[in-house]
Design goal:
The protein is α/β, with parallel strands linked by helices. It contains 6 helices and 9 strands, in the order βββαβαβαβαβββαα. Strand 8 and strand 9 (about 130) form a beta hairpin.
Length: about 170
């Protein structure tokens, strides 16, 4: 399950995730045996996630998702991604994504910095400028090609489950 680790402005709305509510959600996830994905949109949210870990509410190796390019959160830049990665616990698994036109450049950057990648129509509807993608599979194929062009390989579903202990 996803835990958005803090409150933030989101367009004209405000998403409210109080620490005490996040503690409760993390406790429920732990009780039912679900590993949370700790989504962080800025540095304060990384600190909240680290609090959840220190409180024993997240078991095992934590999984962070660095969310970039969302208005009022961390920008989709190499500098932001590298700084956020540096703020994570040393034993954390992590992935990163960016929305819209920054999705594919941040796929490359995440892989280059040692992270996992994420793509999908939740974050981006275009395969290239001005061209809508046909489905999530097309976005995944492009991400696989980007990682491959950089000398990497993509895990199978079973390999990913093993790596992430899910």
């Amino acid at each position: 399950c996803t835990l958005d680790c803090g409150s933030m402005n989101f367009g004209d709305a405000v998403v409210v995730n109080r620490v005490r509510d996040l503690e409760r959600m993390a406790a429920i996830a732990k009780r039912v045996g679900v590993k949370p994905e700790l989504e962080v949109f800025d540095f304060g949210q990384i600190e909240i996630a680290k609090h959840l870990i220190a409180a024993g509410l997240v078991s095992g190796r934590p999984l962070f998702q660095l969310c970039l390019g969302i208005s009022w959160g961390a920008p989709a830049t190499t500098e932001s991604m590298a700084a956020m990665k540096a703020a994570l616990p040393a034993d954390a698994d992590w992935a990163a994504f960016a929305i819209s036109r920054n999705e594919f450049p941040m796929v490359a950057q995440s892989w280059l910095l040692g992270g996992h990648v994420r793509v999908g129509m939740e974050d981006n509807l275009c395969i290239r400028k001005g061209e809508l993608c046909r489905d999530n599979a097309q976005l995944v194929e492009r991400a696989v090609a980007i990682v491959g062009s950089l000398g990497g390989t993509v895990a199978t579903a079973q390999e990913a489950r093993t790596m992430l202990a899910v």
